[in-house]
Amino acid sequence: MHDEPATLLVVEDDAAVRTFLADNLTADGYEVLVAETARDAVRQLEYAHPDLALLDIGLPDQTGFEVLRRIREADASASRIDPGLPVILLTGRAGELDRIRGFDRGADDFLPKPFSYGELHGRIRALLRRCRTRRGGGRLRVGDLEVDSLSRQVRLRGRPLSLSGKEFALLRALAVEPTRVWTKEELLRDVWGYRSRGATRTLDSHACRLRAKLAVDGDVYVVNVWGVGYRLIDGPLAVAA
Ligand code: CA
C-alpha cells in the first residue's frame, strides 16, 4: 500500500553516530536527511517534510526537547512543520527523568544510547506503521475481526459492532500489531494522548468493555498481560466446551 520509501530526518551532532545511522538507514531503503544542530533540524523540518525524525537530545545550540516543542506546538494550518510528525528521541542520558520529559513533550518513542541498530530499525518500522494507520490507512484484519479506519467500522464475522470512540481507538491501536504486547504507557499515549500518563484505570475499564463487546460468541480477543499491558490474539482462542 505504501511502497514509496519513507524520508527520515537524523538530528545528531556526533559525526560518527550520524554517519553510521545515515549509511545504515540508506542501505535499508530510506531517504535520509541529516542535521547537526537544532537550527538545521528546524530548517529541514520546514522545507524537506520528513516522515519521521530521530532526534538527539544533546545538541550544540539547543536541546532536542526544544526542537520537539517547536514541532508539537507548530500550528498545522500556519506552519510549514507537521505537528504530528513521529519522533524518536535518542539520548546518552538514560535517566527516567529524560524519558518522562520526552513523553511529556510528545515524543512517540525513546531510545537510550548506546542502542543496537536492529532495535532502532524495529522501532522506526513500528512507528511508521502505527502512524500510517493513525492517519487513515485502510483496513486491518485480525482473525474474524475487521477494523476499518476510514469508516470507523468494526465487524466481527461480518456483523457490525457498536464501539465508543475510545474503544474503537484502543482496538485500532492494538490491531496494528495484533500479536505484540502493547504496554499501558504506549496505549495511553496512542489513544488518550501523551498528557494522560498514569490514567491506567481509564485504560483498564475501556479494555474490559472492549473485551466484552468482542466476546459475543465467547471469543477472547483482548488479552490482559498482567503487569504489562494488552495485546490482541491473532484469531479467537479455541475454548474447550
Ligand atoms: Ca549529542
Walk me through what this model shows.
The chain is of the alpha/beta class and 241 residues long. It folds into 2 domains: 7-131, 3-Layer(aba) Sandwich (Rossmann fold), CATH 3.40.50; 139-240, Winged helix-like DNA-binding domain superfamily/Winged helix DNA-binding domain (Arc Repressor Mutant, subunit A). The protein has 8 helices and 12 strands. It has helices at residues 15-27, 38-48, 64-72, 96-104, 117-134, 165-175, 184-192, 200-213; strands at 7-11, 31-35, 52-56, 87-91, 109-112, 139-142, 145-148, 153-156, 159-161, 182-183, 222-225, 229-232. β11 (222-225) and β12 (229-232) form a beta hairpin. The longest helix has 18 residues, at 117-134. The chain starts with 6 loop residues before the first strand and ends in a 9-residue tail after the last strand. The mean pLDDT is 84. Bound molecules: calcium ion. Calcium ion (CA) binds at residues 13-14, 56, 58-59. Calcium ion binds next to loops.
**Mean of pLDDT:** 84
Number of helices: 8
Largest sheet: 5 strands, parallel
What's the alpha carbon Rg, rounded to whole Å? 19 Å
Shape: elongated
Which architecture of the largest domain would the CATH scheme give at its second level? Answer: 3-Layer(aba) Sandwich
- Return the string of H and E elements: EHEHEHEHEHEEEEHEHHEE
Overall tally of structural domains: 2
What compounds sit in this structure? calcium ion
Strand count: 12
CATH superfamily of the largest domain: Response regulator
Cα(first) to Cα(last) distance is: 41 Å
Beta-strand residue percentage: 15-25%
Derived from helix and strand composition plus strand pairing, the structural class reads: alpha/beta
For the largest sheet, list the strands in their spatial order.
Answer: 2-1-3-4-5
Secondary structure: helix percent:
25-40%
CATH topology of the largest domain: Rossmann fold
Task: List the uncertain runs.
Answer: none
